[in-house]
Amino acid sequence: MRFKNIVFDFGGVLVDLNRPRCIDHFLRLGVTDIGSMLDACHQQGIFHCLDEGTITTDEFHAEIRRRTAIPVTDDEIDAAWYTFLEGIPAYKLDALLELKEHYHVHLLSNVSDLHWQWSCKHLFSYQGHRVEDFFERIYLSYRLKMTKPNPAVFRTMLEDSGMVPEETLFIDDAPDNCRVARSFDITTYTPKAREDWRKVLKEELLQGFNG
Predict the structure, then answer these.
(1) Contact 183, 170 (CB under 8 A)
(2) Alpha carbon distance 197, 206 (integer Å)
(3) Is the peptide bond before 165 cis (omega within 30 degrees of 0)?
(4) pTM of this prediction?
(5) Is 133 annotated as catalytic?
(6) Mind listing the pLDDT tens digit of every residue in the chain (211 residues)?
(7) Helices 151-161 & 175-182, crossing angle to 10 degrees?
(8) 1 vs 3: CA distance, rounded Å
(9) What are phi and psi of 193, to 5 degrees?
(10) Maximal CA-CA distance, the chain
């Protein structure tokens, strides 16, 4: 078996993203410069700081309020941020469970505490499962205090997990993240938005996976 480890990104690979919807909700809150800060792969400004864990949720709320003349509550800000996430198709959750029977499956994601806690409650509570049932190890930017494509993220993951790079497949929708992963001799695959990547994994990359 060529690969022993599979590392998944979260946003854009597992969970479908809806950037236009999220931008629209923040515009309704009066945040007029939201479009320049939100990206499908790498956030900017306060959203980058939130993903990197260098600001607290309270500081995030305060900064959003500073950018708008409209009185908004914490719950309204959080609700707007959650609209970036649409959901994880059931077939992907089923695939993760099957892959875990044959491989060491991990998660490596640029994600904020707000998005992650919401996802654990609403997206991974599938058929009685919890998020821990889908992954052996979970590496999140807000906990690591750094984001991909920083090489230190991949170095930390490899050192902590003991994974051999040549035995590892990394699936991420950001080309820059994959480029840095390859510099560590990790094999990468970059799916398109909303792609069903099971066929590629089954036919080209993995053995022992039925899809």
Answers:
(1) no
(2) 12
(3) no
(4) 0.94
(5) no
(6) 589 999 999 999 999 999 999 999 999 999 999 989 998 778 999 999 999 999 999 999 999 999 998 999 999 999 999 999 999 999 999 999 999 999 999 999 999 999 999 999 999 999 999 999 999 999 999 999 999 999 999 999 999 999 999 999 999 999 999 999 999 999 999 999 999 999 998 887 786 566 6
(7) 60
(8) 6
(9) -60, 130
(10) 58
What is the residue type of 54? T
- Give the whole-angstrom CA distance, residue 71 versus residue 182: 46
Tokens of 157: 């993951």
Look at residues 170, 118, 178, 171 and name the one whose alpha carbon lies nearest to residue 148.
Answer: 178
Closest of 105, 81, 99, 89 to residue 8, by C-alpha: 105
The three-class DSSP label of residue 32 is coil
**Exactly one of 9, 51, 172, 173 is catalytic; which is it?**
9
As a whole number of Å, the CA-based R_g of the chain is: 17
- What lies within 8 Å, CB to CB, of 136 at 6+ separation is 100, 104, 105, 106
Q: Is 58 helix (H, G, I), strand (E, B) or coil?
A: helix
Closest CA to 17 of 170, 180, 194, 190: 194
